[in-house]
Amino acid sequence: MSVAAHGDTAAAVANYIFPNDLHVHWSLMIVLYPYITGIVAGAFIVSSLYHVFHIKELKPISRFSLLFALAFLICATWPLLNHLGHPERAMSMMLTPNPTSAMAGFGYIYSAYMIVLLLEILFLYRPTVVALKEQASGFMRTVYGILSVGSDNVSEKALKLDHKIISFLAAIGIPMACVLHGYVGFIFGGIKANPLWATPLMPLIFLLSACVSGIAGIILAYTLIMKFTGQPLDVNCIRTCVKFLWGFFILDFVFEMLELFSHFYMATHHWHTLETLYSGPLYVSFWVLQVGVFSVIPFFVLMALSLINWNDKVIAFFAPLVSVMILCQVLLMRWNVVVGGQLMSKSERGATTFHPQWLEKEGILPAIIIMVAPLVILWILGKVLPFWQKDDPAAQQVG
Amino acid sequence: MDKEYKSHYYSHVVRIAFFLVIGGVLAVVARGLFLPDTMGQYGHYRGSNIEEQKNVEVRNHTNESCYECHRPIRLIHKAGVHQTVSCEFCHGPYADHIQDGKYVEKLPVKRDMEIKALCLRCHNKVIRARPEDSIKMVAMPQHLEEKKVQTDHNCNQCHMVHDPLLWIKAAREMMGLPMKEDKK
């Protein structure tokens, strides 16, 4: 008889594992949570590049990226609510703010960012909404009435005031987006009991990978929507996005590797565990997939796309392709950090395994539903607020 | 030529600011309404929760509670190497058996293959976190082969579960074999 037939202890468990380390508690949902907030922060940065830093080439996607960020921000709490259970208790966090708990800070950080994002969208779309209200009737007229806050004034003076407010909101939005996602990194970076997580570089790495995934998400969504609705693609805009994507990805990848290298070089007593983790359970998902396939290849593809003057067709084909790879890279990075950190025992002498199931509460199917939900919300948002300038009655009136 | 508008150029800003203030006021009011009265009484938690915790039914007891009735087992269990193992660890919680000092239900007793699974919960060599010098770790069926018994034997065919070495020692004494030195 085999060993396994004599007891239900998982034979895959290696070496010394404490009983309370056997089960991976922070499951797929906690992989998705930083992934989604990262996409939000990244998409907001894209919009800010136009609104604050006046990168004119990004104008076509500057409003779309805000709605994209909003759609994902609405769903950012879903994995947490599903993971923790008892979603009705979520509000207690707001009622009884705890200044000494990093995790309890999420409610306020999230809400503050949500308010800034909503206000920016409200001000940005006001002329559009006012024009749409004139054309609409019935229920949609009421919706546009609410969105325009009951004002029909789109005079130069009013728009000038709006512009000032938008610039202000976009400007405070950047540090807030950075705080939102840097904070998510801090949640992991501040856990000193886990040598894979406990590094001050963690917020920085999370933030950079957030920018990367947000830009990649925008490129992919923009090219796909344009392709499937048969609209012309603004390739100059894609070119600029690709350059920013490459720039952020250089920093992101370098810091990911630097973090690993500093662990390796300092070779503290934790390195022994980390080494066995990286060469054991994480070998395929980290070295082969995250680093090998989805970092090195996109790195060179992005470099080639940025440095060589390709024709439009090449850019339109490779930009979304490399964006998919980058999105995979960031998802793998979240997986390797969140799940990887829990695969090693606090005994620092053994590792456990994690295989998500399809139908369990925090399984693969709920994860897919949570990732599809923002796209459905985005589609609904698109029905109310036009993504593109050419569908905007206000823009047509002006020019 | 400037178009005539019904609203002032700043009216939407004033309204949004007004709604934000209203939202803030509502949040403060809601906090007053929904915040539990005893929140913060002793610390950053609901004070009345202490009373609730005090009233949580005690389901687990110590071995002494069991020994009050199970006298013979007490003598065996306290003499053997399993003396520190809680009765409830194998038999289940006290509250399933006795409530308000009265017998309610028989606790399940593990038999046959269940016994093997129960023992291996602690003694399985696969769980390598356990130091060998504090608890005997065995690999099955290797242990049975080493002891030259059939590999379908159950643990309790050789080991008295309450004092695992009781019969082993008795057998060695009968056979005149030397006793192994007790591990610390």
What keywords describe this structure?
heterodimer; A: 399 residues; mainly alpha; Formate dehydrogenase/DMSO reductase fold; 69% helix; B: 184 residues; Helix Hairpins; two-stranded antiparallel sheet
Question: Average pLDDT of chain A, to the nearest integer?
Answer: 91
Strand residue content of chain B: under 5%
| Count of DSSP strands of chain B | 2
User: SSE order of chain B in H/E notation?
Assistant: HHHHHEEHHH
What is the tally of beta strands of chain A? 2
Our Rg estimate of chain A from Cα atoms comes to 23 Å
β-sheet strand percentage of chain A: under 5%
**Helix content percent band of chain B:** 40-55%
Q: What is the overall shape of chain A?
A: globular
Global structural class of chain B: mainly alpha
Q: Give the biggest beta sheet of chain A.
A: 2 strands, antiparallel
Low-confidence stretches of chain B: none
Written as H for each helix and E for each strand, in order along the chain, the element string of chain A is EHHHHHHHHHHHHHEHH
**Order of strands across the widest beta sheet of chain A?**
1-2
Largest sheet of chain B: 2 strands, antiparallel
CATH homology group of chain A:
Formate dehydrogenase/DMSO reductase domain
List the total number of helices of chain A: 15
Rg over C-alpha atoms of chain B, rounded to the nearest angstrom: 33 Å
The assigned CATH architecture of chain A is Up-down Bundle
- What's the CATH topology name of chain A? Formate dehydrogenase/DMSO reductase fold
